[in-house]
Protein 1
Amino acid sequence: MLELQDVAVTYQNVIPALRGASLEIPEKVVVALLGTNGAGKTTLLRAISGLLPLHRGALVGGRILWAGERIDRLSPTRIVQLGITQVLEGRRIFDDLTVDENLHAGAITVRNPAAIRRAYDRVMSLFPVLAERRSSRAGYLSGGEQQMLAIGRALMASPRLLLLDEPSLGLAPFMVQRIRNIIAEINAEGTAVLLVEQNAQMALSVAHYGYVLETGRVVLAAPAARLLQEENIRQFYLGLREGERQLALGRLRQRRERAAERRWLS
Amino acid sequence: MAYFLQLVFAGAAQGCIYALIGLGFSIIFKASQVINFAQGELLLVGTYVVASAVLNWHLPFLLALPLGLLVTIVIGLLFERLVLRRMIGRPPFTILMITIGLDIILRTLVIVGWGSRTIPAATPFAVTSGFNVAGVHLGSSDLWTIGVTIVLCAALYYFFRHTRYGLAMRATALDQEAALAMGIDVRNVYALAWGLAAAITTLGGVLLAIDSLAIDPNFGNAALVAFPAIILGGLDSVSGAVIGGVIIGLTSVLTAGYESRLPAVVGTGLHEVTPYLIMILILMIRPYGLFGSRKVERI
Ligand SMILES: Nc1ncnc2c1ncn2[C@@H]1O[C@H](COP(=O)(O)OP(=O)(O)OP(=O)(O)O)[C@@H](O)[C@H]1O
Ligand SMILES: [Mg+2]
């Protein structure tokens, strides 16, 4: 359904962020996109959703196809209308607006009131907490509730593909688990998901397929189950040591180890 | 007492004019974090067009006004479309300098087109029209100014709270990238902000011109007087602009009315500085203005 072919992106004409990344998202599946800080995950999402120009970035190679049509020159508005919505890293809810206003902002591209009502009801049943707080200021919600609102807001456009950028960021373990279950539920209703995560364990537990991105290239692509099982991959790429959640410091250390790692792979 | 009430009435009317001009600043600032320094000159062009339409082309005032609004809206939209749209994502300071450029261009155009002498302002009322209540003279132009401002504020409130485009504007103001990610067409939001701001500011200018009877190429400086009002209210707050405007109008008219009774050392120009004194005082207590949000960067 969505296909990235050798996508290369640079920022400000000089800073390369993606160097020929290819990736495929079939209909109705969850694809996990993993990688360390600065690997280019967010950039890849921006390339899909049309947000690169805002960051003075541009696609300098390759193409992006949605249902066979190129979408890499389209405006973000057009891309949302075609059925792809991105949830930005760090939630980014409109904190001065109410929960309801946030949700309706998510439906701004939708012209049909019946469709808006349907999407709204779906969001309310997915996130009962939001239903209780419809008219409170979104800024007063807890971190987890804000993440739910961010996802709910994106669902208001009834996307066929949802792009999630690190939804577990800064959340307590039980909340990470809830977000994971919500992703599974959204997917069960037929929405494909591209899930960017640092929390590889969570991501792979819900994804069908996983990609590992490193310095702008896809270095590994495999079914999620396999990525979870293979000990080498777990340790070297995903930084998982039995249930342990990595801290940023740990990741930095890994990055150095990875140089030796690469030699071992080739 | 009647004297005091008279001053309060006049101050409220003047405050409404600052409020309208200030609304222009804050609508643009809120949507795009740009302080539009060409605001005063948009207003200048608008009032000249209205004056010309009435005095030279003999149009009725009620036709001249929309014509003036239309001209400034078109200028605002063109500027947004041709210049600002290419500057999205550039530093606010760069954009601010560009608006100063537009300001100079517009003022020059006015001088080239109309000359630099003073011309009478267009007005639909006789200067003395109005009526008296309990010894207070309620002039037609002041009454209209207050009435128009109240209606406009109510309309804006409805627009921002209850319409799609209003919601799109508020969302964009809070987080441009998040708004884009929702499919909100931010370019349309900017265009809308510029069109609205140009029209509201021009309306303020035309009402001010009615009050001051005549206009010249320095008339756009009125926007500078509205500036303390929006800083006071909070640069990014639409309701703050209105309340700030009224506070500034009241204090400046009240000081003007009573300063002759003060000791001579204070001088007779006190009313010109009180708006700034009030602004500084309030900013010392509330650095982001009365209603401003903490996120606003100080420029
Ligand atoms: N707006 C920008 N301007 C310039 N360079 C950028 C910009 N955004 C990202 N980059 C650079 O592009 C590369 C990829 O960044 P990106 O944000 O896509 O990584 P990421 O995988 O999402 O990392 P993280 O896990 O930290 O979110 C990095 O080297 C980063 O410094
Ligand atoms: Mg990122």
Protein 2
Amino acid sequence: MLELRNVSLNFNGGDGAGIEVLRGVNLQLERGKLYAITGPNGGGKTSLAKVVMGIYTPSQGQVLLDGEDITGLSISERARRGIAYAFQHPPRFKGLTVADIMKIARPDLDSVHMRGYLRDVGLCPEDYLERDLGPGLSGGEIKRIEVAQLLARDAEVTIFDEPEAGVDLWTIQKLLAIIVKRYKGNRQGLAVIITHNEQFLPACDEIILIDEGTVQGQGPAQMMWPLLRDDIVCKQRAQCVGIGGRIDGI
Amino acid sequence: MAFSKLEQDLLAAVADLHALPSGAFNIRKDGEAVERQSSPNIDIVPKTDRPGIDIVVRPGTRGEAVHVPVILTRSGLRDLVYNTFIIGEDSDVLVVAGCGIHNQGSAQSQHDGVHEIIVKQGARLRYVEKHYGQGSPEGRRVLNPNTVVTVEQGAWAEMEMVQVKGVDDTTRNTTAYVYEGGSLKIIERLLTHGTQQAVSAVEIHLVGRDSSGQVLSRSVAQDSSHQEFRAVLVGKERSVGHVECDSIIMGDARIRSVPELIAESGEAVLTHEAAIGRIAGEQLIKLMTLGLGEAEAVETILSRFLR
Ligand SMILES: Nc1ncnc2c1ncn2[C@@H]1O[C@H](COP(=O)(O)OP(=O)(O)OP(=O)(O)O)[C@@H](O)[C@H]1O
Ligand SMILES: [Mg+2]
């Protein structure tokens, strides 16, 4: 189980003033479940994921994995403990091929499985394995390769950051099916999808709404989704469902 | 003759040689040729007026390779050699050159190579030259190659020049002339560290109609090493040329990158891109999220960048 206890995150503003990006976030995520995190742009979703991965150090609070405080662990150590994150905006690398990065993500990966993961994200392995992760790939291609790495990692805690962004509709459908099949009810681990997508949101077990650096609502998807749907500004809906309130057990 | 373990290591490092090759070769050690073999299609002939050899590939020779590595193992030696490569019409060959210096003493060891390469009409040449040095920290290792390349009508040449370890000082001058329909691509890979210095000046003259030239340089400068690149493209006729210099800078290193384009014809299309930058923090973080330690992540980025 992954737990965040009273996590806050500050960045230094240009004028020396601190910007509070996360404010006292409390979350408990259970094994076997598929979670969606959604909310307006700039609300703090990516920052939250980066705190879990160890990329950002919280100014206050703890991150716990199966009850153990991992707040002091480095990124690499967390990766080895089974936390995996697919970036919203993955960096590019000159000279590193798709096959190289898949091997780094999963050193014992054989070629059959490597090809399988690329097909899962809608890429033809023959066309991509030797491609450079440099400027020659499109944004959508880079994104899919990022997701393929995460699938290959087969981690205990898996966090996708907007896997659908820039990816075509056909691939999204397939990807969703793969993620649902793999993580829903799978007690080996848990998965989180940060998403704005209206197919992903209802397909998850729970939806967590984040805005202004706090959890504005959390509940089963079948209850949260109707509240969020048809709503242009999530923020307004968040106010309707009660700011800061955890809506479960309804 | 039998090579010592040290000599074998040098030969493996610069020419990927683990045994005497089956085709034509010439192995030069400490200023003299110690092993030489011609093949039915590739003649290796010592020059009579000065040190060096002529490598003559017969027209139409295809799929053959010739190895001409140089190794220096005596401290304080200064070796000067003149080599001429004539790649016959319509042939298609690989030339593996390269120089390895082992300097265990405190005097400077130096190899100056003057090369002339003529790729005859319709021929294809792949040329690989690796530089490598090892030994004591006091013994300087210096390599200064001067190369003039002629790519004749409809010929094609790709030259790859690699220096990734142990050379203290290098000044490389490469001048090329590309004739009608000819094509030349020069690939450079360079890593300097400590207080090493490297200067590379490439000049490609696109003299023939529809000729093309490319310079692709990737380098890493670590510690307080210095690098300087000059790449000049001269388009005298309807031609296409491109220069790309991409460097990763680390520590207190310094890099100077000077691309120059000279169009002497309205139909010349010449472009350049040059970039110098540190390893991006987000690249390191990304590799660390996949489980690599920081040092491992740096090593991975550098080795793939230079591949
Ligand atoms: N490294 C940083 N330095 C300074 N401010 C940052 C940094 N990273 C994020 N922020 C700020 O934190 C806030 C939350 O950003 P975050 O990326 O977490 O939002 P998000 O919910 O993922 O948004 P989106 O839906 O657009 O991806 C934003 O105001 C952003 O500008
Ligand atoms: Mg985000």
Protein 3
Amino acid sequence: MSKAGDKFDQARRNFLRGIGLGTAAAVAQPAWGGQTFQDALADFFQKDYRRMSKEEIDEALGRIERRVKAQYDVDIDCQNTPPQENVVYGYAINISRCIGCRYCVHACVKENNLGRDSQVQYIRVLELDQGNFNLEQSDHYYDPEKVPVEGKHYLPVQCMQCDDPPCVKACPVEATWMEPDGIVVVDYDWCIGCRYCMAACPYWARHFNWTTPELPAKEINTNCHYLGNRPRPRGVVEKCHFCIHRVRKGQQPACMEACPTGARIFGNLLDPDSEIRYVLANKQVFRLKEDLGTEPKFWYFSD
Amino acid sequence: MTMRTAIGLVGTGLLAAFSALVAYAQDSSEPGGNLRFEGYPGAPEIQVVSRIDELFFYPCDECHATMEPNPDIRELDTFHDSEIDHGKGRIWCHSCHQLEDPNNLITLLDEPVGIDDAHIVCGGCHANREKDWYFGAHGKRLVNWQGERTVYNCTHCHNPHSPAIEPRAPKPAPPVRAGLEREPGAEHEHTPIWESHEVDDEP
């Protein structure tokens, strides 16, 4: 852990001891790099995202920016872009176009400030034998010289942004919920890291940070969102959020932008003229584990 | 109703259905000119990224202006490759390039179109993909998911002379979770539970 992080933890511990909450100090400390004592104090009393007033959120954003500055010496712009009106996002992947090149995976790692060393990657590209859709028999560590390999097909899996998300129901502290534009988000400051949501997710889409993410300061993406890609601590659960910091401003998710074959189609499910609606109306689409009734907003098709 | 009017009615019916599917417009500058494909009704407006700057040989008439057009199927020994890995030997240069003016492409209706309208040429033989492309289910949209649509032309991804997508090297595989190791060759097949737990059948 960084020096600054130690200082922060120390400050917080001293404070807790001071007001006689010694036992609370035994609770796992998030490994944020802290800055001032006031910030540490305010962080400690920070409310759940959905209960904060606009001013409180703005202050929290400021604290996040200062925290990153202290930890990495990088100025990020942490925003809280609201959902757009009359927009619910949906995603579709054309599996006959996907060649398994993992460009999406690596674009996602960069875009979302994922630890470079850790096992956390939001997108998992599964390799299956042609015609086989038994996910248990898939391999996501494949590493041939060239893809696609004859006789194989590829299936990228990430958070499906279920419309009836079991992970949300499983969370004991309501640190995860569905936003009005259909994106299931996590308040990393409210998450206690119990990982119930991971057990509830049928798609293996949620990931736990066992170690403090290794982030090269030079490569930090400074365009951040509170509910999205801001640098996160160890000990919380995170997952794909459809690049909330990009899509709410009209940009494509990073994985779609990176896809060289155009296999990824993203858009507004409420707009009848969108590409995604054309796909849903004109292609044979399916979803993974549809029988579970989680209503993923993530489809697959082939043509 | 006579046979002829019946056929006529069916005919107009078909024609109407057909023109409802694809909107053709008469080229007004040339009386009696060719029917020209004007896109699918309801298809969104698109901007197609130009390919001209990517081309090495363009403008073609720098050489071809002084040459006799030669429609013969033959081995080309200067500048161009005559190997076309497209359509299994059924198509030749002039299925797509205008014989008289190679700056242009040519549609199946013998209509010259610019290099940047290549999708119209491809669409002549690959109508399904072309329709999907117009509606955004094939090909690639750039920049945004809403508002103005900018897309790549077919030729950005498919080399027209050898259109199958080339295999490429994948990006690195994900790391194995800290503290664990990959079992070599163990990617698939688990032993079924009833085989790994031997049950003693003898009473």
